[in-house]
């Protein structure tokens, strides 16, 4: 009776016309039921009645609000509506309801079902970074979330789409071991993992995964057909698989098997045609292309390939018609325009050829190669003012205007069907349609380019053809990486999607700029901080161990609520535009006393960044110890990471076509040695000297010539030698000893440096790394790991240009990254200075000369570009300030939310600091922050050990070895302090034992029966360290 009365009293739960059972069923519906609910007619009718009731309540709400004392609706109704609209695939309405719930109720911040539903909506609306953000919130709040597998799989697809392949692979790998329900199959996961390896150029590994999927007895026919098609195309395009004819045979075999499972797939038939064309089986190629057109929507790629085939068979009229069909279907299809231009040019119809080249350059989706642009300019100059003469030449083909005026071929409209709609965005791999040049063709291309001025017309046509094919080949990787998405089941207005992509992430929970200062927040927690260890653990005595929820088994270093941190809102009021280009703080160090002074330390700690000039001179630092010559003499075979980048001005960051400014900063990672990169540095320097000499000669010649000046050179690819590890004292003893001359604040190892209290090396953090550069090498935008400060010295002989933004603006930059479809933490980005100016972000811009030391304070966002040939050395430091410690713990939790590994183990570091450091009264804020972390960590260890004991599990004591590295969970990359869950790897021939966290261990074995549990500190030890960590009187110290 009481339960009935309760339902009637609550208008959200009491729905007229529904039985109590149906009302309870409606209350049970939430985002977890997406894809898991039988959407039968009765279920849809039930949801429809609930939606009508809730919307009626909302209509009445404005009138109720006018009545004094009236009880208003619980904002939870908007979350209920969001869930129900999600289940019936009404994406826009679901989004509006979820947003309203977020605005009206703080409960949304603690609701993983809300975040999951929001993530699904963003995913369907193709706002992938927003979806990732929401999904990660759900897992942060509840690591054991009922739909964690669905989240992990979609996160894998999202990061694959973003081309962050290592992160995508990690999510797919976690999906394989997660026991929660899942709508996809393991074969589908392996397909995506294989495709990641293919996109990374690891073709043999990709092939193994594809074969594993194909051979699986539980693989469905559609997926098997997709994998066989992908494998066939890989055989066709990748030379690593052997001789051409053998590869084409394997490709045909795979594609034939694919068609056995899916005979109506137009793309498979198209790929078959490409393979036959490469084998010169012309009749079979035409038949395959015909089948492709018959079985799928009209495709410009197919008609362009047919045109190429006709052109090879010396059938120019047929080739013309095919190319025209391609550009009629897609006016931005660059290869078709360029091929058509070459066809006209080969037949000496130069005005038509020029128009084709110009159309491809102006309207094409893919960029024209420099050779095509040069060809168009040459034709334009040749026929300028002579169209009449060229028109009198007998023509083989109709003029371009006549050809384009012909009606589109009937077979195109017959084969055209509107795109199919599917329920979910698939993000499945779509192979690109470009043929890679063979080694022989590349040799011919290089030979023709070397003798370009001596070529006859036929050879010029061949050169242009090969260059066009090479251009298309260069687009191959980019096209493969851009996985396409399918349309959603319900229509979404273009305005909605545009708003999501153009505006900042609508639900990014920016921290209020009016929140209490750190000192006031710590003061409010003073009583809590000063409790003894026994008092802290006594708080846990009422817990029901063995039945604890995930809320009690999580460690959050920032707060007791378990909520993640939020990016800061832009500081207010906005600065005037005249203040957005501040001068960088700079100090010319006069003498050693000034360099080592406390005033210098205090000055640096107050600045977001600073340049110390003349420091190396007054301290007599021998920077030649870090020169390329010394490095090569000391360790010529030392490994170096090499990044291949596009050379651009520091203000610019263009896409691959050099037509649009973007934020994404692309580079290709490889490995080399110090000696090889040193040789590259020297060669580039000599090349630059030679070019300068040639340019001077040209300049002298041009001074007497009134002709047009030469155009700027096209951008080139350069190599950046990064992350050279100098931590080994056996190799770099002299170099490291030289750095001991530096002031304590900026030393690699010093008592005042938090990172020196770690008893193991973290490469590049508490050890030195070196960077070898030529002009244009750039370090993309970032904050240092866990917001620690950094020190950078330019060895020279060239300069570097720096851009820095104070940490208060990192939330704005993170927002701009998402707007530009690049991930702030996992992605690589180069900010657009105009975007920063429009967002009222002040940027320090300055040049670092040889010998200059650049200080980057806690959390400062920065990016760097070399202006000359130089080496740099850098490392991180952690000053003992409350701000540094707080920003570190805040980023630790933010990294946890973003699935980004914190390479500084903050919990381990805090306990080490507590053991080693005596805190004086002046360090009180820092001490309070350390005590809070110790309190939360100690309490977590006690609760987890008691919980395990109640489950019948015993954690064995095994003391931590001296200098033992901190431990991280293999699956989720979280730091695992004290209590380790050890699992033997199941891979074949593996005897490796690895560490997991509690949540990931339970996903592998819910009852922990097969898992060894160790603890490295007894709770009593932690209590003693905690109680000894007190403030001391500075006079007694």
Lay out the secondary structure.
Blueprint: H1 2-9, H2 20-28, H3 41-66, H4 76-87, H5 91-104, H6 112-124, H7 128-141, H8 148-161, H9 165-177, H10 186-199, H11 203-215, H12 221-237, H13 244-261, H14 266-278, H15 282-295, H16 300-312, H17 316-329, H18 334-346, H19 350-363, H20 370-383, H21 387-391, H22 400-405, H23 410-415, H24 439-450, H25 457-474, H26 476-481, H27 494-502, H28 518-524, H29 526-529, H30 533-538, E1 586-588, H31 592-595, H32 598-606, E2 609-613, H33 615-618, H34 628-634, E3 639-646, E4 668-673, H35 674-702, E5 717-725, H36 729-738, E6 769-773, E7 778-782, E8 789-797, E9 800-805, H37 810-819, H38 833-838, E10 844-848, E11 853-856, E12 861-866, E13 870-877, H39 882-897, H40 906-916, E14 919-920, H41 924-950, E15 956-957, E16 967-968, E17 975-976, E18 979-984, E19 993-996, H42 998-1004, E20 1012-1015, H43 1019-1028, E21 1031-1032
Parallel strand pairs: 1-2, 14-21, 15-20
Antiparallel strand pairs: 2-11, 3-4, 3-5, 5-6, 6-13, 7-12, 8-11, 8-13, 9-10, 9-12, 16-17, 18-19, 18-20
Helix pairs in contact: 3-4, 4-5, 4-6, 5-6, 6-7, 7-8, 8-9, 9-10, 10-11, 11-12, 12-13, 13-14, 14-15, 15-16, 16-17, 16-18, 17-18, 18-19, 18-25, 19-20, 24-25, 39-41, 40-41, 41-43
Protein name: Lysine-specific demethylase 6A
Keywords: Chromatin regulator, Dioxygenase, Iron, Metal-binding, Nucleus, Oxidoreductase, Phosphoprotein, TPR repeat, Zinc
Subcellular location: Nucleus
């Amino acid at each position: 009776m009481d339960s009935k009365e309760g339902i009637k009293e609550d208008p959200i739960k009491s729905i007229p016309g529904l039985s109590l059972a149906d009302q309870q069923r409606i209350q049970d519906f939430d985002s977890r039921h997406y894809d898991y609910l039988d959407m039968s007619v009765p279920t849809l009718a039930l949801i429809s009645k609930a939606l009508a009731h809730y919307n009626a309540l909302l209509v009445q709400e404005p009138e109720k609000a006018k009545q004094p004392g009236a009880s208003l609706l619980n904002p939870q109704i908007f979350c209920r509506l969001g869930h129900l609209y999600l289940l019936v695939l009404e994406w826009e309405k679901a989004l509006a309801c979820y947003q309203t719930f977020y605005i009206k109720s703080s409960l949304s911040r603690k609701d993983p079902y809300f975040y999951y539903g929001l993530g699904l909506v963003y995913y369907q609306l193709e706002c992938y970074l927003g979806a990732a953000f929401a999904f990660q919130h759900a897992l942060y709040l509840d690591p054991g979330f009922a739909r964690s597998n669905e989240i992990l799989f979609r996160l894998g697809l999202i990061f694959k789409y973003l081309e962050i392949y290592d992160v995508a692979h990690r999510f797919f790998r976690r999906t394989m071991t997660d026991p929660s329900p899942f709508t996809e199959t393991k074969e589908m996961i392996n397909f995506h993992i294989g495709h990641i390896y293919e996109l990374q150029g690891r073709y043999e590994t990709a092939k193994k995964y594809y074969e594993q999927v194909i051979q699986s007895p539980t693989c469905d026919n559609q997926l098997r057909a997709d994998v066989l098609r992908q494998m066939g195309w890989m055989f066709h395009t990748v030379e690593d698989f052997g001789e051409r004819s053998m590869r084409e045979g394997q490709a045909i075999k795979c594609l034939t098997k694919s068609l056995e499972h899916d005979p109506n797939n137009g793309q498979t038939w198209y790929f078959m045609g490409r393979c036959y064309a490469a084998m010169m089986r012309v009749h079979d190629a035409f038949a395959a292309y015909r089948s492709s057109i018959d079985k799928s929507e009209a495709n410009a790629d197919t008609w362009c390939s047919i045109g190429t085939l006709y052109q090879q068979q010396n059938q120019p009229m047929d080739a013309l018609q095919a190319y025209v069909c391609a550009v009629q279907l897609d006016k931005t299809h660059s290869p078709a325009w360029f091929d058509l231009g070459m066809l006209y040019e080969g037949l000496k119809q130069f005005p038509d050829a020029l128009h084709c080249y110009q159309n491809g350059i102006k309207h094409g989706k893919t960029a024209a190669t420099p050779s095509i642009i040069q060809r168009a300019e040459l034709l334009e100059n040749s026929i300028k003012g002579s169209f009449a003469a060229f028109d009198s030449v007998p023509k083989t083909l109709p003029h371009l205007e006549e050809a384009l005026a012909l009606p589109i071929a009937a077979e195109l409209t017959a084969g055209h069907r509107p795109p199919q709609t599917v329920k979910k965005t698939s993000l499945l791999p779509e192979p690109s349609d470009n043929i890679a040049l063979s080694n022989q063709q590349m040799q011919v291309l290089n030979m023709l380019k070397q003798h370009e001025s001596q070529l006859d017309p036929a050879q010029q046509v061949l050169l242009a053809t090969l260059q066009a094919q090479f251009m298309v080949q260069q687009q191959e990787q980019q096209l493969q990486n851009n996985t396409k998405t399918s349309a959603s089941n319900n229509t979404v207005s273009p305005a909605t999607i545009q708003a999501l992509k153009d505006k900042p992430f609508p639900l990014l929970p920016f921290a209020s700029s009016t929140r209490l200062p750190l000192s006031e927040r710590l003061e409010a927690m003073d009583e809590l901080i000063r409790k003894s260890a026994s008092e802290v653990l006594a708080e846990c005595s009422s817990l029901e161990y063995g039945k604890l929820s995930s809320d009690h088994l999580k460690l959050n270093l920032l707060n007791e609520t378990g909520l993640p941190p939020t990016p800061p809102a832009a500081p207010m009021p906005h600065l005037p535009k005249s203040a957005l280009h501040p001068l960088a703080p700079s100090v010319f160090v006069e003498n050693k006393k000034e360099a080592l002074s406390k005033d210098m330390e205090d000055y640096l700690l107050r600045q977001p960044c600073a340049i110390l000039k003349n420091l190396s001179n007054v301290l007599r630092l021998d920077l030649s110890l870090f020169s390329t010559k010394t490095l090569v003499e000391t360790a010529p075979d030392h490994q170096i990471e090499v990044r291949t980048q596009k050379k651009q001005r520091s203000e610019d960051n263009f896409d691959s076509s050099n037509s649009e400014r973007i934020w994404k900063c692309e580079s290709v990672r490889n490995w080399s040695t110090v000696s090889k990169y040193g040789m590259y540095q020297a060669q580039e320097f000599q090349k630059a000297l030679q070019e300068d000499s040639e340019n001077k000669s040209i300049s002298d010649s041009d001074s007497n010539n009134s002709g047009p000046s030469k155009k700027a050179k096209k951008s080139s690819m350069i190599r950046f030698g990064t992350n050279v590890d100098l931590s080994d004292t056996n190799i770099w003893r002299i170099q490291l000893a030289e750095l001991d001359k530096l002031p304590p604040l900026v030393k690699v190892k010093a008592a005042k440096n938090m990172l020196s209290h770690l008893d193991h090396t973290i490469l590049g953090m508490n050890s030195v790394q070196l960077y070898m550069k030529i002009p244009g090498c750039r370090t993309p935008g970032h904050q240092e790991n866990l917001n620690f400060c950094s020190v950078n010295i330019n060895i020279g002989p060239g300069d570097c240009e720096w851009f820095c933004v104070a940490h208060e603006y990192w939330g704005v930059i993170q927002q701009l990254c998402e707007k530009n479809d690049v991930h702030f933490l996992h992605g690589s980005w180069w900010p657009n200075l105009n975007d920063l100016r429009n967002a009222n972000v002040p940027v320090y811009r300055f040049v670092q000369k040889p010998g200059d030391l650049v200080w980057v304070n806690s959390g400062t966002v920065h990016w760097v570009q070399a202006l000359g040939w130089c080496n740099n050395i850098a490392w991180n430091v952690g000053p003992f300030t409350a701000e540094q410690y707080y920003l570190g713990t805040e980023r630790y939790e933010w990294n946890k939310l973003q699935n980004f590994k914190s390479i500084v183990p903050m919990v381990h570091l805090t306990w080490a600091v507590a053991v080693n450091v005596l805190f004086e009264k002046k360090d009180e804020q820092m001490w309070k922050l350390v005590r809070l972390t110790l309190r939360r960590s100690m309490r977590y260890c006690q609760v987890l050990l008691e919980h395990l004991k109640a489950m019948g599990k015993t954690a064995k004591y095994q003391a931590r070895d001296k200098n033992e590295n901190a431990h991280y969970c293999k699956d989720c990359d979280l730091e695992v302090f004290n209590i380790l869950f050890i699992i033997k790897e199941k891979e074949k021939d593996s005897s490796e034992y690895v560490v997991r966290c509690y949540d990931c261990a339970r996903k592998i074995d819910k009852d922990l029966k097969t898992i060894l549990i160790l603890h490295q500190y007894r709770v009593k030890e932690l209590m003693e360290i905690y109680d000894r960590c007190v403030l001391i009187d500075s006079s007694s110290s």
